Fold:
Amino acid sequence: MNVLVLNGSPKGDYSITLQTVLYLEKINPQKTFTILNVGQRIKALESDFTPAMEAIKNADVLLFAYPVYTFIAPCQLHRFIELMKEHNVPVEGKFVTQITTSKHFYDVTAHRYIQDNCQDMHMKFVHGLSADMEDLTTEQGQKEARNFWRHFCWCVKNDYYETSYSKTIIPANKPVSIPTQSAKQLDCNDEVVIVTDCTPTDTSLNDMIARFQAKLPLKSRIVNISEYPFIGGCLGCFNCATDGVCIYKDGFDSFLRDKIQTAQTIVYAFTIKDHSMGSRFKMYDDRQFCNGHRTVTMGMPVGYLVSGNLSEEENLRTIIDARAQVGGNILAGVATDEFDPDKDIDKLAASVVYALQNKNLQPQNFYGIGGMKIFRDLIYQMRGMMKADHQFYKEHGQYDFPQKEIGTVLKMYLIGALISSPKVKSKMGNKMNEGMIAPYRKVIERAGKK
Ligand SMILES: Cc1cc2nc3c(=O)[nH]c(=O)nc-3n(C[C@H](O)[C@H](O)[C@H](O)COP(=O)(O)O)c2cc1C
Structure:
């Protein structure tokens, strides 16, 4: 079996994820592993795709190996998938799977992104391995990697693969009528920044942005990231870990802080591509790693203008929700051009104004709380290196470790001791419920008195 490994890590041979692949190669000498560093060599592959095409043609099975980067894959891998589709790579019917390493922060959406794209290309997709960064250094992690590979080989042998639930997404491109008169301007300096990667050919998205600006009674300006002179995608080099300064000298870290994060609201505008926001947008997202894991836009409303069939993109919708949740942002709304674009856009404009006026930040849900707990533990462990994050977490009370709540812990010991005595338990009656509800009753009693 010829296995082609598509290494999406921008670190190439220094990829942690790749080490799991090398481990599997070592214990399976009967299989030929060919490694293509597609993440690191993306610029060369953009100019000449032949080496990838040849390698894909010669492969029996494909293995995507990459790190999870901000909810999905590194932008370099997004670009590679675009190139695979542009070049109509002959992969139909080939088996494919994936290995990632990460801290399990939204590894699920990354895996689903690769699955959906492989299934677009009519490949036979088998569930992958989502390993923690350190897993391979433990016995358990090695066992899991071996078991994963054994299962994959079994699937190939027995022609077993996942059913595809995704359809190929074609951007809707419905015409949107632009009103001739601008909406009345409010006496308000709140500024909305529209971050987009749209090009003149994205007609529907351009129309959506124009209508949104016309309907929005606030100042707005466009930052077009397709024109930004990015030197490249995030390299994962951790140069920014101590002081937030990116190794690239293209000024993006300052640009982000001075021209985008200074706005009152950010509205992202993109056309759905390969079940995501496309490689350019992903580059913009990945490069925000200069902010580490700091929720620097906490409390800021965000919105989305999306061209394409978002209703069929469950994974992308999850990513949109989760990004706002983890960032502590108010998700003002998502407008698409799928069904009734004008109405959607007008609603978004009104909702942005409401969000800015009311700053109604709701409690975080599972996406937000769960994600932040992973970050909290990670930053605490890595505080010696992630100095900027550590400082931010201390300043913003984000080290909310349960063991710090000594009062609650002691109270629970007391209750535990009481209810483990059958005698006390029998006399308790409804006292526990009464006790639990008491603080809320106090609030209700006091309510309306001020
Ligand atoms: C820009 C960037 C974004 C990242 N985003 C995530 C993430 O969303 N979830 C996660 O669990 N880990 C994330 N990580 C951590 C990497 O997934 C992890 O370090 C991985 O093991 C690196 O693998 P590699 O050495 O193969 O590139 C991110 C790291 C970088 C540099």
Q: What stands out?
A: The longest helix spans residues 139-158. The CA atoms of residues 335 and 347 lie 8 Å apart. Residues 167-187 have pLDDT under 50 and may be disordered.
